[in-house]
Amino acid sequence: MFMVGVVFSLIGLVCLFFSFCLFRGAFRKRNGWKSAPGIVVGYVESIRDGQRHYRSQVQFTAKGGNPVVITSNIGSNTHLNRIGDQVKVLYDLNNPAQGVIKSFSTLYMPGIVLAFIAVCFSGVGGHILYSLDSSKM
């Protein structure tokens, strides 16, 4: 049972590390990338587990006047934005095609979810190790 506790704790620590990396990347995007207005021009539709998911496609004009279309990383079973809605886009001047929609869910939600998983795994692992240690007394 000791090894189970150690494995759960280690998985939690690894998830916490990657969560930190995701947050660091989000802050770098927010503070270091250029912001531009964009407009929702369409959706990418996919089917997962028998349900339709939609990801917004946004067009914006990068520095230099080049139009760029990006697809959101975040999908939903409903249209999060309507075609024609204006959104803010963050993009790297060297690679505008890797731009992201500037929203809380796009920037921070992956890190938050991974941090929650890290806390759960670390909590279970810590509880197992604590239970083993206190049962010896």
TrEMBL record:
The chain crosses the membrane at residues 6-27, 107-130. It holds the Pfam family DUF3592. Keywords: Membrane, Transmembrane, Transmembrane helix. Residues 37-104 form the DUF3592 domain. The keyword Transmembrane helix applies. This is DUF3592 domain-containing protein. It comes from Pedosphaera parvula (strain Ellin514).
